[in-house]
Amino acid sequence: MIEIEHVTKRYGDVAVVDDVSMVIEPRTVTVIVGTSGSGKTTLLRMINRLVEPTSGTIRLDGVDNRTVPGPQLRRSIGYAIQGHGLFPHRTVAQNIATVPSLLGWDAGRIRARVDELLSLFQLDPAAFGARYPHELSGGQQQRVGVARALAAEPNVLLMDEPFGALDPIIRTKAQEDLLAIQRRFGTTIILVTHDMEEAVHLGDRIAVMDAGRLIQYAIPAEILARPANDFVETLVGASDRPFKLLSLGAVRDAVEPGEAEGAAIGDEATQRDALAELLWSGRAAMPVTDDEGRALGRVTVNGLVKRAARPA
User: Fold this and answer.
1) For residue 282, what are the contacts with CB-CB under 8 A and spacing of at least 6?
2) How far is Cα 29 from Cα 182, in angstroms, rounded to an integer?
3) How far apart, in whole angstroms, are the C-alpha atoms of residue 305 and residue 169?
4) Cα separation of 22 and 108, whole Å?
5) What angle do CA 53, 56, 61 make, to 5 degrees?
6) Distances in whole angstroms, Cα of residue 311 to Cα of each of 160, 223, 224, 237, 308
7) SS3 of 113, please?
8) 246-261 burial by CB neighbour count: b if 16+ within 10 A, else e?
9) Interacting residues of 180 by C-beta distance below 8 A, sequence separation 6+
10) Phi/psi at 111 (5° precision)
11) Which of 167, 182, 228, 256 is most buried, with most CB under 10 Å away?
12) Residue 195 confidence (pLDDT) above 80
């Protein structure tokens, strides 16, 4: 658990983070979103003390982070940034091994952890371990950057615009990789982005910041349905808000009894994907199956449209 209490950061007379309080639950993904200059990156960096707060307290599992020496604190917290930040003169394996080496892990344990993470990110250790960053694609570099941040098995992972430099296809894959990793290790992730679509997709909770202040902190559905003010409403975007709401729910939650013609959709797909397929194929309904291909019922345009409406 990360407790942020009345945290302020001033540079001269300017408060770039202004009296922010929030609690981040363990083993969740919290996304901090806002426009440039809103204070989101500064808030993130105060968690691992790359930036020192002017006032306020940040506790990790009840321990004030100021009571832990900065280098020791940062070795216990994963940190991934946009553009990956890999050391160009070190191999992929050496990059991933950076923090475990600083912590004094033995060579066998380090090698096993490097191989585990490379395999987890679908990078063959034998093929990629000895390569240098310039020999990798942008997506591969980003995966190695996240692997390095996870190498020492941190309970907390901080991510600052980690996918901002990736093209849309690679970015989507990187987001799915991150969610899979988070589910596997139960890591508490705090991710900064300016992209509300990414925030809705990844976050268990979303913190919206503007001019250094925390404007709203809630689950994605609450942010979408009940924005706290005009700024949040603009950030959410009125034109595609119904589709963002549908992206939060799985098809299994929208299944209706009955049959339908044509190709089926899996019950793990999002309701947004189901509506898109229905509209594209010109159908009013389509069958839904589970992961073993068994028929569960159908999903309909009318049913999905009702789910896309603002909650009462």
Assistant:
1) none
2) 8
3) 27
4) 40
5) 100
6) 32, 12, 10, 17, 8
7) helix
8) bbbbebbebbeeeebe
9) none
10) -60, -40
11) 182
12) yes
